[in-house]
From TrEMBL, chains A, B:
Alphabetically ordered keywords of this record: Aminopeptidase, Hydrolase, Protease
GO MF terms, alphabetically ordered: aminopeptidase activity
Record Pfam families: Creatinase_N (PF01321), Peptidase_M24 (PF00557)
Creatinase N-terminal domain mapped to chain residues: 8-138
Species assigned in the record: Streptomyces similanensis
Top-rank taxon: Bacteria
Domain Peptidase M24: 146-348
Region feature Disordered, mapped onto this chain: 189-211
UniProt-recorded name of the protein: Aminopeptidase P family protein
Lineage, broadest ranks: Bacteria, Bacillati, Actinomycetota, Actinomycetes, Kitasatosporales
Amino acid sequence: MSEVYAARRTRLRERCNAGGSAAALVTRPANVRYLAGAAPHGAVLLLGKREDLLVCQSPPDDRPCEGRPDDNLRVRILPQPGGDPAVAAAGLAQAQEADSLAVEEHHLTVARHRALTSVTPRLRLTDLGSAVEQLRVVKDEEEISCLRIGAEIADQALGELLESILVGRTERHLALELERRLVDHGADGPAFPTSVATGPNSGRRGHRPTDRRVEEGDFLSVCLGAAYRGYRCEIGRTFVIGTSPADWQIQLYELVFAAQRAGREALTPGAAYRDVDRAARQVLDCAGYSEGLQPLTGHGVGLEIDEDPQLAPAAMGKLDACVPVTVEPGVHLPGRGGVRIDDTLVVRPEADGGPELLTITTKELLAL
Amino acid sequence: MSEVYAARRTRLRERCNAGGSAAALVTRPANVRYLAGAAPHGAVLLLGKREDLLVCQSPPDDRPCEGRPDDNLRVRILPQPGGDPAVAAAGLAQAQEADSLAVEEHHLTVARHRALTSVTPRLRLTDLGSAVEQLRVVKDEEEISCLRIGAEIADQALGELLESILVGRTERHLALELERRLVDHGADGPAFPTSVATGPNSGRRGHRPTDRRVEEGDFLSVCLGAAYRGYRCEIGRTFVIGTSPADWQIQLYELVFAAQRAGREALTPGAAYRDVDRAARQVLDCAGYSEGLQPLTGHGVGLEIDEDPQLAPAAMGKLDACVPVTVEPGVHLPGRGGVRIDDTLVVRPEADGGPELLTITTKELLAL
């Protein structure tokens, strides 16, 4: 794996040098992990003029889910507890005779930025912007394989839940049980707080579980994901509780299903982000649900659960192959509930069979 | 409760005005919650020249664990999804004819700070520093009551675990079970990731659970806490697995127990933070464990699990009454394991009976 991290750092260095900076300081944890193989708590990565260094507050942990620092990367532990590794790294950059240092201004606070300036007055601080986030958008097969395993784990956890008795249990307990099952099946942990929504709560994006109990006739919508070796996937499904769904439930489900399918089918290399969003959104729009729709119908996933790209009306850019994204339209009717259907897929060219569906739990409307 | 939040805002406004700022923008979530009663995702609080406003991306959630915005506070929802409430709030501050705005430079990123500057060029941005964090150090009885309930919940969860079979179970499963029990007993959720450490891992502060199984003869150290209405407490205990602890285990336990007692007994109003730390630390130092001791032996708790003050050798300041802190010395012997004992207590004057212990699980060495 070591060459992978070195190659990523080389690509970033090229971008930095092209932007006129001799060195870069990466502080955002997911970016540190992407470039260094691990991101121990508080650690920062210096792309130095002569040498790269991972600067840590304490020795890195050695568990697989935490990642392992690239063997080719020198690790520097701060001698004093409580110091700021970013400040130390800026000093090391100056010691390597860099005259400028690109920092992540969208992550560094004003106070930390000032501390860097004051310890290294000779160093000109520039903005690295989201250069690392941009590198992270297209995944390699190793990364996709971690997402695939995470998706299998989430499918298993969800499948087991569906076999149990649901009526009478609270949203909070169902969410906790799903998270326990994720870990049982080998996840590092949940990829994000598991959402379980019943009855009038169903269909709300990011609903946080309450003490409401599952009742006959409810819609039940569930959204969960596994973190596996740092990579995070997402699956969302909506079910009906009881033997026979009501007509409005069947109609609403079919509508959201059609929207989600349209979004999935629009996932081709070269498709504009906003066109994928529009494909899903216009199905709901045409049916009269334009009010209160969520601002996006999908987003990238990877080391973070919410990455670039955003599949939204005003998003700029086009999909590449090997970009994993969610497609997750939904409708929520205040007071009644609603439906969300959410998959993680990898964009693939037509010649390779089109988009690869990672989350394979059925999307038929199940009555439980 | 409403008057409580208004009174807190009045105190902050007085500080701001004394510092020469007409208005303040609070962005750190725990600070927003402290002053507004709730901190919906992404919400910021404007202490305006004429009116205070809670600026949110979407309507606030109404669950008790999320808090409820103060009724006297006007809530402003952003008309467009995806906007930055801080930028909107800066515009509103300017509309109220403020000429300066104090911001939390230790929380605001460089990029957001620049966005504020560019939308409100007539507004002079100053630094609010940690003014709100300082107000938060001394708690009122309402806050302490939330911490007390949280501590009871953690004691219950831990007590139940001790009655179950432990040998053969993994650190990860024990941690998940504790977290489930916290929720069963009414916690919003865990106050922080539950730590369960066995054998050679025991005694490590902040150890993240692994797949190692509990074995006969192990030390088992556990650290957990409940979040209750936003307030977070902490308890840590170390046990021995099997019928008869080894001599080194008894000696190490008694030593850490003596250090922890010394720390607890040093908790009086007016005591210097560093003296409380020294009281606990010197017991371990004198026994020859000065190498590798953790940088602090305790810290404040409240809306965040790690708040001011820090009980550490270089900390400046003195304890006040009604400050809840942890006392948590520990020793870890690489390859063998160790002991940590951790309580949450509230500093009280001697006349009121001295420090109030919130986490009452026994600190006798239990062999399980």
